[in-house]
Amino acid sequence: MLVHSIPTNAGYDFASDVRAGLTRPDQKELPSKYLYDDVGSALFEVISHLPEYGLTRADERLLRRHAKEIVERVPGPVAVAELGSGSGKKTRWLLEAFCRRQRTSYYPVEISHAALVMCERELSDIDAISIVGFEREYLDGLLEVAAYRKPGQHLCVLFLGSTIGNFDRAAGVDFLAEVRSILQPDDSLLLGTDLEKSGSQLLQAYDDELGVTAAFNLNLLARVNRELAADFALDHFEHTARINSEARSVEMHLVSKRHQVVSIPMAEVVVEFQEGETIWTESSHKYSSDEIFDTARKAGFRCEVQWIDEQWPFAENLLIAE
Ligand SMILES: C[S@@+](CC[C@H](N)C(=O)[O-])C[C@H]1O[C@@H](n2cnc3c(N)ncnc32)[C@H](O)[C@@H]1O
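^ thats the input. predicted complex w/ S-adenosylmethionine below
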């Protein structure tokens, strides 16, 4: 077992993204990737255990049940890259199956340092694995992983947990096409997608009774306070989840409870909020099982197999690069 980390080269600028997002003339927004600092990554782990949030358990059930078949369908020798691995807990089922077949290199790509550390710790005891973590954005990390590829080696990319849903549908296709452009024919992409379900089930999943998702969302303002010396009063904002029927998504917002002015010195901006005005922090688009075949095709893949969970509508899709 070898564990090694490639540290961040921060290809993004938190301060300028915060300034751009909060000075938008219409809907203020903050990119969802910034939800995952050390606190946010820890809170997301807790969310994945909440009874209301069945998504992670559905993903894990499918991976556990079908790991052997997935690995048999992925031609070897193979290196495995995971985009946004989080703690990597449910990836264990796949990696153990890959490592039973051959010694396997695993490359988690994570924007969150804390998630990458959790992931490396979680999976390092697997026999015949070597782990090289990249603290990078998805495509930057994947490009570097592809440069490690040995002659004749296939790449299997994992994009689990329905993180694809954070992109709107068109941007999701564009993103998958970018992934495809880094791959070679017959490389594979295992894509987890949360499927459409009732509005009430979604609202509970994204606004749980304990308030963990609310804390996860509000932590974004706390992060702006910590890292950019801002003066957000957290109790002047509240978390809300909203269904966007047209987009077939659930959105997380932070609602300003009053008229207020917030100063963010390190982003060189002062922001005024009206009472009821929101900051849009995340969207999670939900898919129909059929449309994934079309999404895959538009991005240069074919969807070879789809497995659907019986308890929580969620699909694991094995895409092969054409
Ligand atoms: C919804 S969580 C899913 C985690 C895990 N894959 C799962 O299924 O439980 C998304 C993960 O992607 C990471 N992430 C978000 N945006 C990213 C980006 N642009 N580049 C790399 N990682 C990102 C986050 O830090 C977080 O760990």
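Residues 33, 36, 41, 44, 48, 56, 59, 84-86, 109-112, 115, 137-138, 160-161, 163 surround S-adenosylmethionine (CB under 6 Å).
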